[in-house]
Fold this sequence. Notes:
Radius of gyration: 22 Å
Helix content: 10-25%
Amino acid sequence: MDDNERNTLNVGACTSEKTFKFIQGGFPKMNKKLLKVAVTSALTVAFAVPAFANPFVDVSKDHWAYDAVVELAKEGVIEGYGDNTFRGEQNITRYEMAQMVAKAMDQDLTGEQKATVEKLAREFAKELNSLGKDVKDLKAEQERVKISGDARVRYGSNDESDKTDFRARVTLDGKISDNLKFNTRVSSGDISYDENSEGIVLDTANLSFNALGLENTVGRQDLILGTGTIIDDTMTGISSEVGGLKVFYGNHASEEQDLFGAEYGTELFGADVNLDYMKADAKQGEDKEFYGVNTSFGITKNISMNAEYAKENKSGDDAVAYGIKFDKLGLSATYKDVEAGAATNYGAQAYDINNVSFLSEGYKGMEYKLERELNENTLFTVKYQDFENHAGTKDDNRTSAYLNVKF
Length: 407
């Protein structure tokens, strides 16, 4: 997080840009302000539209093509990633989709399978035709350097003021050798329409490699545990993964703390489950130690439940959240009850609480969120929060909105 955003939120912390962290409050005086957002949102989309043909953008798991490929994989038509496996839990890029479809077109298919493959071929023909390359060319290009990015406009308001800003980021992922990769993300920083921007920011810079059966990343990198209650931030250090286990050690510069811990993710009785642990050794101030668990599972078609529990060991304070999501509508409602010691300046929720006293006293209440994909790779999110502290004092209602375009 940059100084401009930190000052806006009055919270001395930084975090990953993977979640919207500019949250302020109130419905009043919205019409004129939302007009400003509409204009800037249109500019954001116009800026990113030429990039929609990028074949390396992930295909959303809500996209019909994703379900179609999963079904073809079950039937043995789609071969997968070259090792004859289809890792359905991972994201699929448009390039990978095109590669799978190209292989499927050479197989003997039933009438229904042929119709599905032809529909998929039409869906991804634009990327292949616009680049004028075949699948082999695309694969070779991705193995060298993958260029992607996102552009975001966001809006927040309270009873007294409002603010809108813009950010563009470009990410470079490259292959140095068969066992060494690099990642660099350059950000414009948050460019306010009312204030001066802070200039170009190097968001992440790290190297990834395999050693001793581990997938390792060294350097400045994003760090999220679970849904971000314990931490949603960046650190400079090392992380290693094997199977569903991730361990990490690094430095959180702005908080002057050394962080180390682990996360284990698995599927249990049809539910996704994550177990989290983090120790924060403060160079100044008090050390903290966190434990957490979160889960999500479907209860009926297009309806899922989620729950999370986290505890700070030394204070004994905990955080509880549970809610329901209507997946097809993109609408969710979540109840949160966070005691003071369980709230941190580097957790995602810290950026939803722009009132420092509420963060230090703990808070509870409802959060409502709507996420809609306006177009492929274009996500619009609105969040509304109604919180009070544990003494029963009502906080200002906060409303936020942002538009994020990936390219």
